[in-house]
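[Meeting: bench + compute handoff]

Bench side (C.D.) handed over the final construct sequence. Compute side (W.E.) agreed to return the predicted structure before the next meeting so the bench team could plan truncations. Sequence as handed over:
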Amino acid sequence: MAKQVIEYAGVPVGIVVPDKGLLKFIAVKLHVHDLDGQHFASPSDVLRAIHKLMSASNAGVHRAA
């Protein structure tokens, strides 16, 4: 697998790249920066983590810079 763009609510928020047998998330938006550098088993796991982060912070994609 090559790099893959990860979108949340229709907005690109980062990419995943293969690393150590998993997928490493590289954030490109500040509101998901807490997940930057973390490893996930699948792109859907990344999306779940982003959703959890956004729900916990009560922030919206449209309010972020």
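W.E. noted at the follow-up: The two ends are 30 Å apart (CA to CA). C.D. will use this when planning the next construct.
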